Amino acid sequence: MLCGRYMNDHRKSHLTATKRVLSYVRGTMKLALLFPIEGKEANIELIGYSDSDWCGDRSDRRSTSDYLFKFNNAAIS
Fold first, then answer.
1. What's the pLDDT at 15?
2. To the nearest 10°, the Cα dihedral for 70, 71, 76, 77?
């Protein structure tokens, strides 16, 4: 988790950001994704895509990558 990077040298802004993240998580705990299945013969499909670019950022030569997972044609990650 990104908040854990600053445990040894933390500032007030880091504490404020961490509290904001925890407040968001507390407020969204009852939310969920529902994926209805239409009978026993329904096709369950999980598809994953990924892409990467090695040293694509011209300013700092960092690589970037990303991914997408779809379950029954709905993006889940």
1. 86
2. -50
